[in-house]
Write a sequence for this structure.
């Protein structure tokens, strides 16, 4: 399975915005004052921790938008694993551009590699089970597209990208509608044929009702492994089963062992620490 | 000391962008299909973990931009500490708007409260020392203004906001210039009288050279507490002293005890996990 | 079934942009030069043709963005049918604002009502059959969200909103992949669990292959009613069936009679003429 | 007479916006999952109907913004006539880019070629008469610049581009001002010397008054050919004469025969169906 | 003659952009740190020089976008003359907002009032003559709409707003075309009936040729008063006559006395000094 | 001392916006109608007045954004002095692009060169004194970054770029705080260690108070040379001294002779006339 890419036209506004945020109104005072305009340099991106890389296109674009003559040669592409000290890429060109874009490039790269690494840690933990690790809508505001990409780079898959590409009926929707059946019926009437419907269920009774309504997927929220196992048995392939609820690399194996199709984890995108990657001037 | 606020005109584009990212092209399918347009509800923002709150203005704006009739009453303002179960705010109005804006509001609030909480944990650890905790430029792309605000909400202070509001001469600048003196001289010639100059030093010899040049601040990078103590003694108030290098709540007290003025910490903004805050429908 | 609404935050940029396009650099020269600033007027939106209304929120916003004191009272909401001469809404306030925003408001209203009316004509033609009328991605650049809304207002349903909310495997994808099976397999591996997969088939052999792969929907392209009937029989409820290929109100009934689930029609959004609606000053 | 072009800097935002609208948050799932990154292809743009081409620059830009290595060779430039089956252009390059940009490119090309074709049909109908066919401000919101260009490509000419580049005094303005003379006088006092003034007249008495005021042009609204002929005689070259009022290819010749200078037609831009153009992979 | 206004929807982006430019990433540090949030104040806008006011709507919007509770009462509206010490407006509300928006508001007001004042000085100098003072396209990048408004506020009129609202054939166009006749003919063929054509002429021979072509206006560039007088006589009302070429309040009367219709002056918009207006806290 | 440059990524939005402002909705009617698409030309930028050049990068970008094949060779770079008749640059390429971008390029170049020239006139007037000439926040809305650059090109230095990169405590802040000491204390508590604090003082008593508080700089507002001399003596190097108050080239030498460090001048950016630079076709 290859990694679904990011379209350059989609990431350029993000990188441009981040650079302008850092340049402010006066630009890179330190570098412009100190570094001669014709100085060139070669640098390497080096992993200071082990993990999975994601975001090299954004880093490359940060350098290129500041200085089109900067060139990057990638040694370990997005989705690749690194050990501490591993050279990820070589980046060379005018020294001013390298210094000015460095922090923005690293901010993207560290953040996305952190998400990829976190995802990979859970994916690895459940290897051998059929379950896939998926992310949620608990993303950093404005960065959903690239954070979901980082999850893919780490071996995970994507849940909804937004409120509009699938129906996910939660407890409050059910309460307002007066029951699962009413909620599902209204959703079916309102949306197109390519929109899947998933329902959050807290009990096996709710699960039974959802299954009889023929929903596409069920979100089994905060269930114990034992409950999950019963749920999976009850579903018997009639719907996609998704387990959620503060699952960690430590608890993931027991969840995966229940036979669920998906394990969704919010902290991959909202709380993964950065992967420490540095830029070393040669 | 009160908390320097965020100007509404500065945060509106961020909130608007985040909402549109979530709404996509078709809007909130689930809610619009299921929830009657005239249904109203009351909800409460509840802390599920202990920590420090930050970002209520962004959360309130998320609700108001989706539905101007939604009103929020704040019980624990930004900068306030919460224990698990604490009600932070009451939010009421049309149920559709509450459900549609919920995730965006929580994404801002959880992220910023996470940063404030992390900051607060270090600030608390060094209470009694004069040192202030400051953040860096290692921020999430596009969110620097609000992440720096969250650091303030947690009791910290702000370092540079970008490449253009202060000079920070790092090792690579010094190498290019051929020494600290040359680098500082070029910087002085190039920037205005209200721009401070800080120099990163790795050794006491470098520190001595920087002090003789009359720089405003020195960044003491990756020094041991013993080295820091010597450095502070050598500086003797002639410059602001800043310690940096992977400092944690556990190691911060020994760093603070050296008498440095500032402790700068990158992970506050790039790796703090969210503070878990939920929205409960009453 | 109620009409899924447009979020105000999503349409404001479109209306603002359209007004600025019309105002140019100097504004409404004619009105500003001739009409006194304190003149008020009452106007009515009147249908000059029979059809279905769509776009009143955009029209109202056009007036309000130019002049916040303009008020609109709606007599026939979006989705409602009108006969020639029917008053759709009453709009009153400062005369300058009414005259300046008039064309922009009518351009939105006429265009969207035209789409709703065209949709309604086909929906009506197949009344009694189970098939739903759906639109395509053949929309006017920049207006997809509101044109898809207009289709809903006319009683139709929505197909994909873009390249990213469902997989639709067409002949060229199949040719590149070397067959339907390979294409479907690669798609399954690449996308999330809430993304449905539809395959375009031209023959019953292809249909058979697609069904055995368990795809969610099949696009039966340019088939005769007889072929469609065979296809529907072969599918036997295992997938959603979609007929396409220049279907008109005249040919739609025979297509619908084949038992397909969906009839997709590109011209609803790319070639429907406007519904003639005028603004009469009282 | 050559065709006044579109400046690339003016169309790029439109094309970029349309592509992003289609890519959404996750990009082209189908193509990215199925088509290998190194696959190249050659395609041809083929007319499936006879008509006049317009919008090739926008189509080319759509492909190039997605994939800079895609190249287009034009065989029939904008303004050229095509018969069904005619190859308009050859487009070759990476297959992913071709598939991803295809729909956006065709949406622009079909829409603008549809307008050019509609315009051409009326222009052809009145060949031999001096009258020119002109469009109005009844354009699709956001697309005025390119729709007016398409009218030119079809052999027509442009009326006002907005509210600010000419004065057009309509019945409501006259009513507010208390008469044509007052309206014209106020307009003259308010606008610059390069702004022409046109007045809408419904009767020959009004026409007489407008002519005595020395206006630049008169809009003869909804007049019969006989009335138009009288009007043209009365004007005797003192002003530009413009006929309007639901004129079609069928009725245009009799209108043109009256000797009017201009025939303005709203449906060219608001109701012309697309010209069916396809992209065939070789 | 009343002053053609600025539409609020047109100026809001300019004011918003200017405020954000001043707020940067951290906002008004000084005011937020020092001034209590609940402090209110009353201020007055006072002219420190005599001149003509323009730009009050932009100033008011600057205050309101920062703080909606700020209210402005205008004592001398745009276009009004002030003597030193004159109170132009009273502005009251939260002190923080007053201090934060002050500079942006004054920057707009001073700049536009400076243009209005410069315009007024020439308008006054030629009082009694029929000539009108008009501005050019030599405006500050990004501010054309409001600078042209300021010229109107000073009693002047507007020339072209851009390259697209009139044809102005200059010496280089004539040289390329191979003569005035060829240039005018090509222009006529290319543009719509509401676009006026003006030709720059340097000699009376050129003027004669232009007049025979029936152009709408002639730009008499850098002619002496004597040449202008001859030109006006030769034109004899057949075209609008415009004199240009570094005309000042001192030289304007002799130019106006030649009987030209228009005197165009670039420095009104590119070199007028600000009118000194201050904001005094009471 | 070299000239701190403008980052291309920072100026592109300004140039793009200015071009679009001039092109409007229909583009350069005159040039597109008259000049053949394949005509090329060579032009030279010529100084018509003596002064200092600034803004060549913006001019070059204006031409390149309209027509990528246009090339500019610079003979006198930004910061260089020119005499009347001096050729600043040679610009060649397609004639249409040269004519269309000409005015926008010259508007930037003339405006910025005007500021550079004005700055240079004061810098020259005080040559031999240690004082530096600095600009203020009294800039043209939206152009602060490039106007501050022009001041540097003229040999001046920059004051604050906005409200957020330094604290400047003015009389109104002092009044609200109840004294200089309270104001400075609150500011110190609120801002980061790299933010300098400057206080405006009107009397020597205030100066004394400010100095005892250890502020970084003092703004000596509207003092006579004698008062300035006393102030400088009193400061004795403990703070940066800045003189302000309507200082001109004529009065600057006597101010500089007082020994102040900085002379700040608002009119450099808000009232400098353009430097007359023309584009001559060869």
């Amino acid at each position: 399975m290859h990694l679904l890419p990011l379209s350059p036209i989609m990431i350029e506004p993000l990188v441009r915005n981040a650079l302008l945020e850092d340049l402010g109104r006066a630009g890179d005072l330190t570098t412009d004052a100190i570094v001669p305009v014709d100085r060139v340099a070669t640098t390497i991106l080096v992993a200071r921790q082990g993990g999975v890389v994601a975001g090299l296109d954004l880093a490359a674009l940060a350098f290129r938008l500041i200085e089109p003559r900067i060139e990057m040669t990638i040694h370990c592409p997005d989705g690749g694993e690194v050990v501490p000290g591993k050279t990820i890429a070589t980046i060379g060109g005018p020294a001013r551009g390298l210094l000015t874009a460095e922090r923005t490039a690293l901010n993207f790269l560290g953040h996305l590699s952190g998400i990829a690494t976190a995802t990979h840690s859970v994916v690895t933990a459940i290897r051998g089970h059929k379950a896939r690790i998926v992310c949620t809508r608990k993303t950093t505001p404005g960065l959903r597209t690239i954070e979901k990409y980082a999850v893919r780079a780490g071996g995970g898959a994507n849940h909804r990208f937004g409120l509009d590409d699938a129906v996910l009926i939660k407890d409050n929707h059910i309460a307002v509608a007066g029951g699962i059946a009413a909620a599902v019926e209204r959703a079916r009437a309102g949306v197109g044929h390519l929109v899947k419907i998933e329902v959050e269920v807290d009990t096996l009774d709710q699960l039974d009702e959802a299954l009889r309504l023929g929903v596409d997927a069920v979100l089994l929220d905060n269930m114990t492994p034992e409950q999950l196992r019963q749920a999976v048995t009850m579903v018997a392939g009639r719907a996609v089963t998704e387990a959620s609820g503060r699952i960690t690399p430590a608890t993931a194996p027991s969840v995966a062992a229940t036979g669920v199709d998906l394990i969704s984890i919010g902290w991959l995108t909202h709380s993964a620490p950065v992967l420490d990657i540095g830029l070393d001037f040669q």
User: Anything to note?
Assistant: Residues 166 and 193 of chain E are 11 Å apart (CA to CA).
